[in-house]
Amino acid sequence: MRSRLVALILIPTVVGVLLAGIQLADAIGTSAEYRRLTQVAELAQKVGALNHELAKERTLTAWAVATGNRAGRTLQLKNQRQTTDKAKAQVESAAKAIDDSHTSRVREGVAEMSRWLDGLDSLRESMVGNVPPQASIRTYTTMIGIFSSIQAGLADGVSDDRLQRDIAALGSLQSMKEEVSRQQIMLIVALAERKLDGEALTEFLGSWDKQQAALASFEAEASAEELKAYQQGVRGQQIDRADSMRQRALAQMREYNKIGDLDVTTGRDLTVWYDSTTLTANAMRKVEDNLATKIVTRTRGLSDDEQRNAIISGAMILVLLLLVLVITTRVAGSLVRPLRRLRAEALQVATTRLPETVRVLRESGEGAQVPEVPSIGINTRDEIGEVARAFDEVHREAIRLAGDEAKLRANVNSMFVNLSRRSQTLVERQLQLIEGLEQGEEDEQRLANLFRLDHLATRMRRNSENLLVLAGQEAARKWSEPVPLVDIARASLSEVENYERVQISIASSTLIVGPAVTDAVHLLAELIENAISFSPRESKVTVTSTPAEGGVLITINDQGIGMSQEELGEANWRLANPPVVDVSVSRRMGLFVVGRLALRHGIRVQLSQRENGGLSALVMMPDMLISGGAGVPQQGGQYEAFTSFDPSMFNQPSANGTQSAANQVLDTEWPGSLPAPGSTGTSWPSFGEQPSFDPSASDQPSFDQPPFGQPRFGEQQPA
Known about the structure:
The protein has 17 helices and eight strands. The protein folds into three domains: 2-320, no CATH class; 368-476; 481-709, Histidine kinase-like ATPase, C-terminal domain (Heat Shock Protein 90, 2-Layer Sandwich). It is mainly alpha-helical.
């Protein structure tokens, strides 16, 4: 019950913990994802600053190359490179935070950026030589494009819609600023060289188209706040002049395929163009940096929110789990405690109190008083309390029925004893009458018939004594003096049919104490009759004795078909544990009687299979039943007449040619060396190691059916 309650509590608890754990793991994973996104956003912000400085360096490098590395431009370029190196150091510091937990796209972009940054110094040196301006422009443009790819990985795994749009707006703004910077240097180189070929013109026009597309994308993705910041930040006279100069340059290239004056108000077109476009790029950079900062702040906030939610969720899960465990433990305890008490009381009643009460009632007989049955003591109003009260009622009813059974058993035993006493009285009178007729009879044929009647009456007396055994009473016939064991064996033959098939080989010096003589005769008679009944008619049954440690071993061997091991196990178990008298006892009277008689005197009886076929009944007479004196059998009456009868000489002609049953002499010759039990195919197992048998097992053989179709053990055969 406890395990079921634990399972009932544990299963939903585990499911709840799993679901909560999944939610908690998801919150932790989301927090970690936003943390990685914050790292990428910070890196992208630093990369944006680096790209802005690289764009300036690109302009100054190409301008210096186009103008022949004039001293003023060279100094200005040197200062810009120092500024670029500072932005580079910040990017490299931010790139260290990118580890294997980031996406492959981000890791590959960072690796590629690191290679370009490592080669930046050598790249600068190569630009000082005779490299054309367009080549330096393309090199820097390629490097800036590679660095910008990191920002493209910023949107990977982002589920926040506003954040996605801000990232898209940032990319558009960066692209727009890059195109302004490219247009700046392309036009500077054209003005410095006083020429603009078709390829440069096409590239300039394409850059303008890209800027307009990026502007449209920015206006579509940016929030109203960011769009307003852009409109307010990227405006002014210089910015408008840069736009007008760009439009004038485009118009002149389309019309004249060359560039003339871009600003009619001054002759310093190149310087004005550089200053105005630089101001435009710086204004865009300011908006870009604010937007990048907003994205970083947003990602940090999302990461902190998810981390806080994970902590709150974990704490709530822990509190709820503890609360559920406390509640369920109390509820389970309220169920388990009365159940455990009910179980303990029920087991105590079933294993000790009820059997002991039943035993006392059985021993009390007619005077049995039904005791008061105490209650288990579970007074709850739930189902457990109802079961406890129902069990109390069952217990009381069982005690009442046991009392009624004890009274009924006592009445039945009284009837058995009454019938047995009456039958014994009549049988004794019949035996006395037959004995008187035998003494006065001279006709041998009639004398033989009288002896047969005498034999039948003796068998009837044994059956009557069986009733006394059933009733738990002892036989009325008692002996005060020890009797030789051989005479006991002879006396047992007087109570069996076909006794002429029995051969006795027992030492005449072994004496059995008087109080056990009657029951020993009865016990041997049951076993010998069983051996005779279950063996072929032409076979012999041998009865031998062997001195053994702790007593004398009597072996009764037959040559029947025997029994299976399961049947032997059951039979031996019932011999060692005689059952309570019930209806089934009537079908195995001999087995029950032998067990009861053996238990009464401490005799051990066991059946075993013989190697050459048949069974051996082994009877261990303990030392306490063996007398040390030279006892003499009781003289007189039917007992003396039969023990002087030699069944091996039965049906042999007498001196006058007739049969005489009364004047035979039994050959009790004791051989000089007794054969061991094993010589007759008998193996005596240790009495301490009885064959294994479980009477409650359903697959054990039933004593209701005889083995191999033979008569049941102990059943009386018709004379």
